C-alpha cells in the first residue's frame, strides 16, 4: 500500500513527537510514515500502539499530512461541493470538510463565456483526481460519472416543478441534475436555451418544470411556466418594454430573427409570436413593417419614431 493524498487509510500510531504530533504508518514496523499534527487530531488524542483511520493530503508546504477530519470527497469519487473562493489565475476553491479547500482549475471553463462560470456559494458536482505531482485536484463531473448514482425519472414527474443544479453548459442549453428527494441521488435533465428566462451558470441552483420524461429516464425541463401562463407573462413583459420605448414602438415583430428575439427577450420565436398575438388580439399593439407599436400611438410613417435601420439588439 502507498501513502496517497486524497485517500482514507487505516494507519498505526507509531509514536508521538512533541511539539509536532503523531507519526503514522502501516503497522508498527519500519516503512513510510506520515505526520498527524496536533491540530489535525479533531477530538480524542490518538494512543500510540493503536490503529486509526486518517485522511491524507498535502499541506501548505507540499508535505503529505494526515488528518482525522472526515472529507466530503475522496480520490476517484464524486460529490457535490460548495464554491468557497475564486482566484483569477488558478480557479475555484471548493469546501471539502477538512479545513482545506480543493482546487478546480480554471482551464475547465470556457474562457470566452465568463457568464457561465460559478459564483461563490454555488454547488458543483466534481470528481477528485491527482495532478502530475500526486496532489489532490478536482474536475467537473461528466455524464459517465453520474451513471452509477442516478435513477430513471418517473412519469409522474411530468408538469411538476423540481429543484436541481446545472452541471454543464452548452451553446443551446444546459445539462442538469434534478433533485431526487426520497428516490435517491437524482435524475439527469436538460434545459434548452429557449426554455430559459435568463442564462444559467454551472453550479447554479434552479427550479424548473418537467416538460418531458424520456424513455431513457432523463427529463426535459423549462424554467418558463406552462404555455398559457407563460404567454400571459411574456405578453405583459413585451407590453412593458414597448411602453418604455420612445414613441411607444419597438423594432421587433413576428418578422424579427429568432436570434435577435432570444438576445433581447430571452424568448424563443414561437413564444414571442404567441405573446405578440395575444397583445394584437386584445387591440393593444399593431404591427407595421418590422415595427410593433402601441395601437393608440401608431405613427403615420414606418420611419417614426425610429429608423428601420435601428439596431434591434439595442
From TrEMBL:
Residues 287-314 are annotated as: Disordered. Keywords: DNA-binding. Residues 159-224 form the S1 motif domain. Residues 305-314 have a biased composition (Basic and acidic residues). Belongs to the CvfB family. This is S1-like domain-containing RNA-binding protein. The lineage of its organism: Bacteria, Bacillati, Bacillota, Bacilli, Bacillales.
